[in-house]
Amino acid sequence: QGGGVDENIDRWIGQLEQPGQPDRANFNVGEFKIHRVAVNGTYTAPSGPMMQATDKKSAYRLVGAIVEGPQGSVFFKMTGPEKTTRAAEKDFDAMLKSLHK
Question: Nearest to residue 45, comparing CAs of 72, 81, 21, 7?
């Protein structure tokens, strides 16, 4: 799980060069506390065991959520071209709102 909620969200934002102002929200769905972030920028495409930047992709958007569960956090992250991720964002949020035990 590699750190707390803020550390993980900051790490996600750090995967973007020149990120815009992150849109952060916290809300509850049933028993779950959800921390959501969305931010635009140039995605550095980290991959591999050390998460090195392998390629840069401009005009990208990252939408992520950390769900605090009874046995630990669960992570959801969507990254892609801004137009594509904006089109899928309502479905991402609907998925989050559908969570139940």
Answer: 81
Whole-number pLDDT of residue 92:
98
Which residue's structure tokens are 């479905």?
A: 91
Q: Residue 31 in 3-state DSSP?
A: coil
Q: Distance (Å, rounded) from C-alpha 63 to C-alpha 25?
A: 11
Query: Which whole-number Å values give the CA distances from 55 to 52, 76, 82, in the listed order?
Result: 9, 22, 17
Tell me the C-alpha to C-alpha distance, in Å, between residue 64 and each of 11, 40.
Answer: 11, 12
The Cα 56–Cα 4 span in angstroms is 27
> Tell me, what's the pLDDT at 79?
95
